[in-house]
Amino acid sequence: MTNNERLQLLVSELDEFVVVLCDTSGNFTSWHPGVLAQFGYTAGEFIGKNLELLFPEEVRNSGAVEREIATAAELGRASDTCWLVKKSGERMMVDGVTIALREPDGGLAGFGKVLLDITPLTTALESGRALAEALGQSTVLIRRWSGAIQHWTAGCERLYGWTAAEASGKIADALLETVFPIPFAEIERQLLASGMWQGEIQQVRKDRTPVFVSAQWVLVAGEKAREPLVIATHADITPRLQMQRDLESANERLKRMTHELERSNQELEEFAHIASHDLRAPLTTARWLTDLLALHNGSQLDQEGNVCVKRIGTSLERMSNLVDAILTHAQVGQSAIGTIEETDTGAVLEMALDNLHSEIVTSNASIEYGSLPPLAIQPQALARLFQNLLANAIKYSNPGVAPEIKITARRENGDWVIALEDNGIGIEPEWTERIFLPLQRRSELGAAGAGLGLATCKKIVTRAGGRIWVESKIGLGSTFYFSLPATPKIVTGVK
Ligand code: ADP
Questions:
Q1: CB 348: neighbour CB atoms within 10 A?
Q2: What band does 236 get if pLDDT is binned at 50, 70 and 90?
Q3: Which of 123, 225, 361, 391 has the fewest CB atoms lying closer than 10 Å?
Q4: CB of 393 sitting under 6 A from ligand 1
Q5: What is the pTM of this model?
C-alpha cells in the first residue's frame, strides 16, 4: 500500500470529521464516505453541487460562502465556526477550515474543507449557560469555608437587598446576621461528615427586616491547597412561617377561649344547680302553706279567693317542676357519662318504664321493643334519656289515640343507633332542631312541661360521644334517634 493510499484510508475512517474536496469554484469533486451519511445526501445528489448546499439559506444569501473561498484562495486557509444544514433541515454546528490546494506551479487547484461536528458540545455549553442563568435567578451564594462570600446571584440581591458588589468578600453570617438553629460548629461537622447541611435560619435584609430561609448547603471540596467552598441555596419561607405563627397564635387564642367558655359553662351549671336546689325548700313550704290555706281557711274565702288559691297552687306546682327539670339538667354536667363498662339497655329501659307506670296506664300506651344491645353509657343517664323520650311520646300523642311506641336498635358504622318511634302529633320541620335547645317548646300545645327534657337528652348523648335527632311527619308521628359509640370509651363531663 502506498503512503497515499494509507492516507486515504485514514481519512475515510475519520467519522467525526467531514472532508470534502472542491474545484476552484467550490463545486464538490470528491468526499469521504461519512459526509453523505452525516448530511443525508446520496452520492448522486451530491456530485457537481456547490459547497453552498451545506449552508443554511441565510448564510448562502449573505455571500459568506464566496467570501470564505476568496479568503482561502488569498491567504491559503479560512477557518470558521458556523451552522451547516443537513438534507432533513436539521442544523449542525461545525468548526471548519477551508484550505486552498495548489498545483506544483502554484496555480489554484481547488479547495479542501475539513469540518468537525461540535453540535453536542454547543448544546452542552448552551444548557450550561441556561443552568447558570437559572441559578443566577435563584438565591444561591457561594461561601468560602471562612464564610467569605465568593459568589452572589441576582436572586440573593432580590432577597437580601445587597448587590453582588456590596456582598462580595463579606463574611456572609455577619452581613446577614444569621441565627442558626444549632451551634455553627455542629453545622461544620455535618458538612465535613456528609457533605451537606440543611435547616431553617433567620437572617436580616439590608433594610433591616427579618427574613426566614430554608437553607441547603453543599460542600465542594477545594483543590489540595485551597479551602473548601460551600454552595448555599436559600429559599424564602418568611410568608409560610408568618402564616404558621398566625395560625399558632389563633389556635392559642381559641384554646384560651374554649377554656374560658368551659369554665363559665361550669360556673353556670354550678349556679343553676345551687339555685334550683336552694329554691326547692321555699317552694315546698309555699306549696304546703297553700294546701293548708285551702284546707283550713277555704270556707272563709269567697269564690274568687278560692280560685286564686287554686291558681297559686298550680303555679307553684309548675315552678316546682321547672326547678326539678333545671336541677336534672344541671346535674347531667356534673359527672362522667360515658363508661368503660357497658350498660344493660333492656334493664334500664324497664326501669324507665316503671317510673312512667302511671302515665302509661292512664294513656293506655303500648310499648314494643326487642332485645337491645348493651350501651356505653351510665345507667342513670340512659334511664333519664329513655324516660324523657318516652314521656314526650306519651305526652304528645294524638288526642283520643292510644300512644304506640316502638323501640329498635341498629348498627351503623362504629355506632349503635337507637330509635323511638311514636304515632303522636309530629313536629313541624322548622322545629326539629330547635326542640333540642333549652326552654324551646311549642307552648300552644298546652301540655305541661319545662322545655328542658330534650335539651337534657342532647346533653347526655353528646357527653357520651353520640348524637340525637328526630324525623317526623305532622299528624303521623315522630322517630327520635340517638347514637352512641359501639366501642365503649370514656367521655367525661366538665369537672
Ligand atoms: P317539654 O316537653 O317540657 O316541652 P322537651 O324539651 O321535652 O320539653 O320538648 C320540647 C318540645 O318538643 C316540646 O314542647 C314539644 O313541642 C316537642 N316534642 C318533644 N317530643 C315530642 C314528640 N314525641 N312528639 C311531638 N312533639 C314533641
A1: 24
A2: very high
A3: 225
A4: yes
A5: 0.50
